[in-house]
Specification:
Main location: cytoplasm
GO biological process, one term: tRNA wobble position uridine thiolation
Strand order of the largest sheet: 2-1-5
Number of domains: 1
CATH topology: Hypothetical Protein Ychn, Chain: A
Shape: globular
Structural class: alpha/beta
GO cellular component, one term: sulfurtransferase complex
CATH architecture: 3-Layer(aba) Sandwich
CATH class: Alpha Beta
Oligomer: single chain
Distance between the termini: 19 Å
Keywords: Cytoplasm, Transferase
Pfam families: DsrE (PF02635)
Helix content: 25-40%
Length: about 120
């Protein structure tokens, strides 16, 4: 069964961590799934976010899965997150997209929704 994990919760939310846990379990069981970061969920891709040493880094945990990590470009830009291309395009001074994540349009979400047998929003 193909699943889409739609992550809309901020990284500080327990729901964001539950999404990661489910993704880890699905990957371990070789289940077909995709993820999409949208709304406040895009904040996980902010490389300038400071994480205390005694806490796990959600972005690094996602990157360890070695899967595609698409992030809504509009939601990211609205929250101050950009890659190098968009930083140049919008005359921003720096870029801060965390390694392993990629900015994409909402067409990616539409495609994921269309091909998924179930959608789980966190």
């Amino acid at each position: 069964m193909s699943s889409l994990l739609l992550i809309t919760s901020a990284p500080s939310s327990i729901h964001a961590w539950h999404a990661l846990g489910l993704a880890q379990a699905l990957k371990e069981k070789n289940q077909d799934f995709r993820v999409f970061f949208y709304q406040d969920g895009v904040m996980v891709a902010n490389n300038l976010q400071w994480i205390p040493d005694d806490q796990r880094n959600l972005a690094l945990e996602w990157a360890k899965l070695n899967i595609r990590l698409p992030v809504c470009v509009s939601a990211a830009l609205a929250r101050g997150i950009t890659d190098q291309d968009n930083a140049q395009r919008h005359a921003l001074h720096t870029h801060n997209l965390a390694q392993g994540f990629e900015l994409v349009g909402l067409g990616e979400l539409a495609d994921a929704v269309q091909s998924a047998e179930r959608i789980l929003q966190f």
